[in-house]
Backbone:
């Protein structure tokens, strides 16, 4: 919902499409980066004479560490870039519970 907040009602589909495209591209780029790191490290170890299973395991180990570092950087960037006043307004709107109408009787 945050991806299309502030758009006119007729343009919200554009915001949803942009958000969906960003998620798809981000996932594809993330997989490409992790695969490249794993394959590069594993092939380097194989050239040095390491056993194939150990080389592959080490490659994936490095790839997972890289994914963790990227995720940590994303959390930091989110913390730094989110506008505090908009966040407070959004939290206030979602935490307000509608009051029931008084019963006549």
Residues:
């Amino acid at each position: 919902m945050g991806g299309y907040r502030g758009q006119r009602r007729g343009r919200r589909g554009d915001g949803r499409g942009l958000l969906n495209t960003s998620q798809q591209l981000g996932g594809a780029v993330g997989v490409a980066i992790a695969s490249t790191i794993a394959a590069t490290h594993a092939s380097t170890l194989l050239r040095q004479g390491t056993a194939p299973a150990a080389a592959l395991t080490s490659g994936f180990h490095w790839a997972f560490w890289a994914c963790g570092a990227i995720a940590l950087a994303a959390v930091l960037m989110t913390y730094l870039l989110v506008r505090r006043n908009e966040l407070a307004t959004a939290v206030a709107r979602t935490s307000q519970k509608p009051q029931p109408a008084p019963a006549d009787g």
